[in-house]
Amino acid sequence: MNTTVWILVVLSLCLTQNVYAVEQKISGIVDVRTTATDGIRSFVDGGLGKFRFNPQTQVSLAQGGLSYQATWDNGIGAHVVANAYWDGVKDNVGISEAYLSYKSLPWDSGFRVTAKTGIIYPHISLENIATAWSSPYTLSYSSINSWFAEEVRHIGANVGLQHLGKFSQSEHDFGFNVETFINNDTTGAMLAWHGWTLGSRQTLWQEHIPLSAIPARNDGGMLAGQAAESDPFIELDNRLGYHFSGNWQWRGKGKVNAGYYNNNADTRVVKQGQYAWLTRFAYVGSKWRLPNGIDFIGQYLQGDTMMRSPYGMVVVDNDYHSAYLLFSKRWQAHRLTVRLEDFAVKDNDNTLDDDNSENGQAYSVSYAYQLRKGWFLQGEYNLIDSERPARAVQGASAELLEQQWQLASRYYF
Predict the structure, then answer these.
(1) Which residues are within 8 A (CB) of 173 and not within 5 positions of it... i.e. 6 or more apart?
(2) What pLDDT does 56 receive?
(3) Are 402 and 364 in contact (CB under 8 A)?
(4) CA distance 161 to 386
(5) Which of 130, 147, 272, 390 could be disulfide-bonded to 134 (CB atoms 3.0-4.6 Å)?
(6) Alpha carbon 392 to chain centroid, angstroms
(7) Nearest to 204 by CA among 68, 98, 124
(8) Spatial separation of the C-alpha atoms in residues 82 and 206, rounded to whole Å
(9) Phi then psi dihedrals of residue 14, to 5 deg
């Protein structure tokens, strides 16, 4: 089902629910940045650079996000998010999320049911919690959430059961979610072919992602049949993926979430140069308020991804992991955030001219000052120290130290 159909579903719901009271909200973000990067060509532009922006100083609209929400008093809601980018790398505008939701009234026992269906992110991120899936902490997302923003999204249906502790005089809430989905059969391709990155651009639903100059894509190579661009939200095998997750929250103190994601792709399917990738991962995350008002977020993700040739031969077989620790302190009009990351991809296959192995660390320091309600000035420094042999094959250094400086004016409304 394409984006237009989902928008029509949302609009039809709005029309059919007019007998109930409705609360509507429009919000957004305008993020204008000056960026200087000393790495190599960006992964967004088909390079192997770890940052979103190309190595030059530039001014850009890093994100123009608009969110529309409607909530009826029967528990049904609708949500559509559009994003615009004008960054000199990949200028575009389109839909990033569009879904219907439901939240029941709590029962006397404290349980309630939630549901969501449409174009959605898997509910995993603990840092991308602001308008239009932006982060209030840093300008660049962690490597985990940069990957999600690029190619871990789908058309799905999520059903959850929550228990609210306040109904039994407890400070603890619990929840469990089951999700099934389609339109994500190439998930894992970009993680394999350019590795972990630090970005802040969410792939729009209609977009394709360019590949780097992989030698194995040359005539006669094992990847000669691969299209020059990956379609991250295509459905190839008509099979459902699934995602299970659970969470615990100690109100006013912190939360923990964990889960397992499997796109259940049939790797025998190839259509128009798009291969189905079997991509699976498990994750755990935690968010706590530490002493002295310091916010802590930590997440760890580990998984594998595999792609075969039309003849059933394994072409790509990778294991991967990524983890980050984030500390953020807010006082008066100031916020200071520090994030430390470690990531790796292990290449287990024997395909010539397609070494996907890498390992690295990333460090980010971000400072934001609130000028007035909704308006922030934010400066950030990012450093990535990584080793990726494929860069040497494509004319760059296998070991690379990349740096990025950003200054942003961010307005939330």
Answers:
(1) 162, 163, 164, 165, 248, 249, 251
(2) 86
(3) no
(4) 41
(5) 130
(6) 28
(7) 98
(8) 12
(9) -60, -40
CA distance 212 to 125: 27
User: 19 vs 204, which has greater pLDDT?
Assistant: 204
Return d(Cα 275, Cα 231) in angstroms, integer.
Answer: 10
Q: What is the pLDDT of residue 310?
A: 82
Give the pLDDT confidence of 5-59 residue by residue, as tens digits: 555 455 555 545 455 689 999 999 999 999 999 989 999 999 999 999 999 889 9
For residue 183, what are the contacts with CB-CB under 8 A and spacing of at least 6? 154, 155, 233, 234, 235
Q: What are phi and psi of 290, to 5 degrees?
A: -90, 170
Residues 6 or more apart whose CB falls under 8 angstroms from that of 188 comprise: 151, 263, 277, 278, 279, 305, 306, 307, 318
Q: What length does the chain have?
A: 413
Helix or strand (DSSP H, E) at 148: helix 143-151
- Between β-strands 399-412 and 22-37, what pairing exists: parallel, antiparallel or unpaired? antiparallel
Structure tokens that stand for 118 in this block: 């449409």
Single pTM value for the model: 0.94
Alpha-carbon span 176 to 187, nearest angstrom: 24
- pLDDT digit string (tens) for 224-267? 999 999 999 999 999 999 999 999 999 999 999 999 999 999 99
Written as six digits, the tokens of 108 are 């006397």
